[in-house]
Design a protein that fits this description.
Length: 343
């Protein structure tokens, strides 16, 4: 006999699948929401990145260009104000006071430009991206330019005062030709003038401005050459006096030998000694003439060496910056354009 349990009814398979389907639907819905949120986040991040790049290319670059454009005029205004004060005439200390307003304005212009550069650099200088590399190169060029202009201003009193009699350098003392009665006295006076002058020039080696640094090296070498040639000419003058004495002695020996009808060997010895002295005189004269010509040339070149700092070197350096910085700005703009078109 078969018994059936009236309280338990077998559940169809279809009804057992409903919870599974329900759970699956919930999971799929959550995943869809998550994917949608992720897409939205990515789109938002991409939009933010695009806006950031656009701002970098536009507002930040423009702000930097405007700020940089005020640096050189401010530097020129300071240089002119300081030189005008010195030519008044005024001491270095007084000239510093009289040009303080222009110096403050330059420092403010430089500070503002560096702040604009920092704004451009902030968050954009990673060398792992093309834009970051372009930003890094542009920042490097600007930092070099700002250092250069700051050095031009800060070291100007040192440079400008090298040939002023009332400054410690007193490099005007190098031109001692008319003050000396002998070449040895000229050499002594030159050595006395060269010591403070070369020290003042060496201080310019610490400048942030490359034109001053290169001038200091060149100038120091030229002063050292003047000293060397002054010593050669002084020694040559002293040697000449000795040669005159030797010549007088040889003449006396020759006259004495002739009067005594000296042996041929003695006469030959006098002739050989005379040849040796003549050879020494020719060598001394050659060294003297060379050193004297180079000394005079060095003295004549000195003013142009100083003038060329601004007329040639500074001018060429600024032209270099004026070419490099816009080129790197354009590289950055082009790199940003490529980045924006690939998004």
């Amino acid at each position: 006999m078969t018994y059936e349990n009236p309280g338990v009814t077998p559940e169809p398979a279809r009804s057992r699948r409903r919870p599974v389907i329900l759970v699956t639907c919930i999971v799929l819905a959550v995943l869809a929401i998550a994917v949608g949120a992720l897409v939205a986040v990515n789109n938002f991040a991409g939009q933010q990145k695009a806006e950031s790049l656009s701002a970098l290319k536009g507002d930040r670059l423009n702000a930097l260009g405007d700020a940089r454009g005020k640096v050189q005029p401010a530097a020129n205004a300071y240089l002119a104000a300081y030189k005008k004060a010195r030519n008044a005439p005024a001491s270095r200390e007084q000239a510093v006071k009289d040009s303080q307003k222009e110096k403050d304005e330059f420092q403010q212009a430089s500070k503002s430009a560096r702040s604009a550069l920092q704004e451009l650099k902030s968050g954009n200088d990673s060398v792992d991206t093309p834009v970051g590399v372009a930003v890094h190169q542009l920042v490097e060029s600007h930092e070099d330019y700002f250092d250069y202009m700051e050095g031009l201003v800060e070291s100007y009193p040192q440079f400008e005062g090298l040939f002023r009699d009332d400054d410690a350098a007193r490099c005007n003392g190098l031109f001692v030709g008319s003050k000396a009665s002998t070449l040895r006295e000229r050499q002594t006076l030159l050595a006395q003038a060269a010591e403070p002058c070369r020290k003042a020039a060496s201080d310019l080696l610490q400048s942030k401005n490359n034109a001053y640094v290169e001038f200091a090296r060149t100038f120091d070498n030229k002063v050292a050459e003047l000293q060397e040639r002054a010593e050669v000419t002084a020694k040559g003058e002293e040697n000449y006096a000795g040669f005159v004495r030797l010549k007088d002695d040889l003449v006396k020996r020759a006259d004495d030998a002739e009067a005594r009808n000296a042996p041929e060997a003695e006469v030959q010895k006098i002739a050989d000694d005379a040849k040796a002295v003549n050879a020494q005189i020719r060598t001394n004269r050659s060294e003297f003439d060379f050193a004297a010509k180079r000394y005079l040339a060095g003295v004549k070149e000195m003013p142009s060496t100083v003038e060329n700092v601004f007329s040639k070197e500074v001018s060429a350096d600024i032209k270099h910056f004026d070419a490099v910085i816009p080129a790197r700005e354009q590289i950055l703009k082009d790199t940003i354009d490529v980045e924006l078109t690939t998004k």
